[in-house]
Amino acid sequence: MKFTIVTSFYNGSKFVSRLYEKIKAQTYTNWEWVVTDDFSSDDAKEILLYISKNDRRVKYVEQSHKKEMFYNPQRFCREAEIIVQADQDDYPLPKALEVYHHFFTKFPDTIAITSCGNLFKENGDWMNFHNPNYIDKPNMACGYLTHLRAWRNNPNIKYDFNPNNWMKYYYNDLSILCTLEEQGKILNLPRNLYYYNYRDNSISHSVYGNEAVEEGSELIKRVNERRVDKDIDTLNRYFEPIHSESVCLMDHHLNNSTEQLKISYIDYSIDHKKKQILKELFFDHDFNINKIDGNEDYAVFAIKTIDDLEKFTSTREADIVKKVQLVIWDQAQNQYTQEIINRISSMYPIYYHSSYHCLINIMK
User: Fold this and answer.
1) Phi, psi for 261 (deg, rounded to 5)
2) Which of 157, 208, 206 is nearest to 180 (CA)?
3) Average pLDDT, the chain
4) What DSSP letter does each residue of 258-320 carry, written as one string?
5) Which residues contact 179 (CB under 8 A, 6 or more apart)?
6) In which band, very low, low, confident or very high, does the pLDDT at 349 lie, cut at 50, 70 and 90?
7) Full-model pTM
8) Which one has a higher pLDDT value, 42 or 74?
9) What is the average per-residue pLDDT within 224-243?
10) HSE of 137, CA atoms in CB hemisphere, 13 A
């Protein structure tokens, strides 16, 4: 299986080398990179031409008009097997292609795979988590489903491109999503496979601002109107049952590793089906459920009630904790939230953010 990564650069010369290095660092090596410059005023084109001359896996293509490849990537890679979308300020994590390859092989009827991403500032500081992809019937196109990543090349895909709307915020992702879902299932992976830069001067922030949000809402409405008579289960919901559990397994260091890390997930109420799906999701790690011996690279304790907290604090596991990240989903509705925060913060320095359950992420 070969992956064709496509990227259109616009005044993105400072991103070219960094993205190239991230692509070269992929643990799965059967890839090519198709790039173009979108009529920039900087030297992005010169840098891209230089790289393409020195690496035969990199192919530079010319466009006839702006945003041509951005909206119609398959026009420039008609022979591609799998197309991977990468914006100029996106950076795939080292195992991204390896994970895509695994699940495209495991689910041959899947036409596309979306994944989660972490958000970084331009200086490299990690800002926050992205919640896992999910499918919500009245709002299927919103949020993280629009962060489209990889799809099988298909001659029946025709992008709904409006040249008078070429700079609008959501149009690219939603347009491709609409056409793909009419051709087959979309698998949503609730784990991080890439990260991208938060930039105050990006088009969506500096040019459109609130208009981007308004247009996104309008496009989502249009997309959902097209789906009125469609069965939501045509989308692949395989990982949906572990949506909340996967939140705690999105640590940057875990997902950025090229090693087979040892992970333990402690949740005494988890059922057998969820155990199996979690293990499948993290097939590339030594993943154990409700089992810990102190040699973990990464351990997670699900703290949903005070009883769960008592179990954690009364066992030897609490003694091996080196770093705690407290993840709290829907804090207002969890009657134990404040007590859990108080108890854990009295024992460890913690970092926490909004999430579904109270989960303690532990890294040694």
Assistant:
1) -70, 155
2) 157
3) 76
4) -S--EEEEE-TT--HHHHHHHHHHTTTSEEEES---S--SEEEEEE-SHHHHHHHHHSGGGGG
5) 157, 158, 159, 160
6) confident
7) 0.84
8) 42
9) 66
10) 6
